[in-house]
């Protein structure tokens, strides 16, 4: 078996098995804790504007979705944001983009410092996004699927006027099923291709990835967005994988049946979203490529970052809508 990128997350059969999220607290208006207090007996932190800090990386698709949702809902003033360097060293995500190499609010050099302040025995991989309490300096949650759903549902009192409903209650059963399929076969599917250490594990992930992309293409052939005429959480989750597809997943992760630009419906759909305020203006292709090609030595030992692909196509007319 080839050497895995993340040994603790690789099964004996060579499959990549993503680690569970360690911190699963939630910020909610139903918390019984007073302002400035910690979580109540049910793990609910009090909803307070300006108290929590979202740590993200421009390169990470899981973190990227939180940045998009935060912006679309108008939570920029309610939740501050800290950005880590796309290049990790042996201590993980660094705040080296900040002038003194420390997050200006949390005062730490590494996100791992916050993880250890929350759980001194934590031995897993430090991940983004992470929602951090600036009062205690502890991680509230790194549960990326729940973070964005909570921003839509639990933070509603702090939304901007006219904010979109990204998780409509009437559509949730269908959306939840669709998002589970997208996560399994696409969002995490590209990683299951890239981090596979056996041919069988790679083959299975590859087939599921492109079967799902074909099904999504068929779904989008007669509707603008995944759930109809309005953008929802499902579109955001798919977008953050599609926008990275040709730049990193097609070559680096061996997802090479077809490029996104060779799938007409999905390419037009992705451009439509990219050109929507709050989407394309949060994309940084340089940081995306730097992260993937420089921090996966088991896959790209030379650390060479490709110059392509041409990004100009993202702003061409999409013909949808």
From TrEMBL:
Residue ranges constituting the GST C-terminal domain according to the UniProt record: 168-292
Xref: InterPro entries: Glutathione-S-Trfase_C-like, Glutathione-S-Trfase_C_sf, Glutathione_S-Trfase, Glutathione_S-Trfase_N, GST_Omega-like_C, GST_Omega/GSH, Thioredoxin-like_sf
Pfam families recorded: GST_C_2, GST_N_2
Binding, glutathione: 93, 125-128
Site (Lowers pKa of active site Cys): 249, 292
Active site: 60 (nucleophile), 191 (proton donor/acceptor)
Keyword line: Transferase
Cellular component aspect of the GO annotation: cytoplasm
Residue segments, region Disordered: 1-44
GO terms assigned for molecular function: glutathione transferase activity
Superkingdom assignment: Bacteria
Entry protein name: Putative glutathione S-transferase
Lineage: Bacteria, Bacillati, Actinomycetota, Actinomycetes, Micromonosporales
């Amino acid at each position: 078996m080839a050497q895995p990128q993340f040994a603790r997350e690789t099964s004996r059969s060579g499959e990549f098995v993503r680690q569970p999220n360690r911190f699963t607290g939630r910020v909610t208006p139903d918390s019984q804790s007073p302002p400035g207090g910690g979580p109540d007996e049910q793990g609910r932190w009090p909803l307070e504007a300006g108290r929590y800090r979202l740590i993200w990386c421009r390169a990470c698709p899981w973190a990227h979705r939180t940045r998009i949702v935060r912006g679309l809902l108008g939570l920029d003033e309610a939740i501050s944001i800290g950005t880590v360097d796309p290049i990790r060293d042996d201590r993980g995500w660094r705040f080296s983009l900040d002038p003194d190499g420390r997050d200006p609010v949390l005062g730490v050099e590494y996100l791992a410092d916050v993880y250890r302040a929350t759980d001194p025995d934590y031995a897993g991989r430090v991940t983004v996004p992470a929602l951090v309490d600036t009062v205690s300096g502890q991680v509230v949650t790194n549960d990326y699927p729940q973070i964005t759903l909570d921003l839509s549902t639990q933070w509603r009192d702090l939304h901007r006027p006219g904010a979109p409903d990204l998780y409509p209650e009437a559509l949730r059963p269908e959306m939840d099923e669709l998002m589970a399929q997208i996560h399994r076969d696409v969002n995490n599917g590209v990683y299951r291709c890239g981090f596979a250490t056996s041919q069988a594990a790679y083959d299975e992930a590859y087939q599921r990835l492109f079967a799902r992309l074909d099904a999504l293409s068929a779904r989008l052939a007669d509707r603008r967005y995944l759930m109809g005429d309005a953008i929802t959480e499902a579109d955001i989750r798919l977008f953050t994988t599609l926008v990275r597809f040709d730049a990193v997943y097609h070559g680096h992760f061996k997802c090479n049946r077809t490029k996104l630009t060779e799938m007409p419906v999905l390419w037009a759909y992705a451009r439509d979203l990219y050109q929507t305020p709050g989407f394309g203006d949060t994309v940084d292709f340089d940081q995306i490529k730097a992260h993937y090609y420089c921090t996966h030595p088991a896959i790209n030992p030379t650390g060479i970052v490709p110059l392509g692909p041409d990004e100009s196509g993202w702003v061409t007319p999409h013909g949808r809508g």
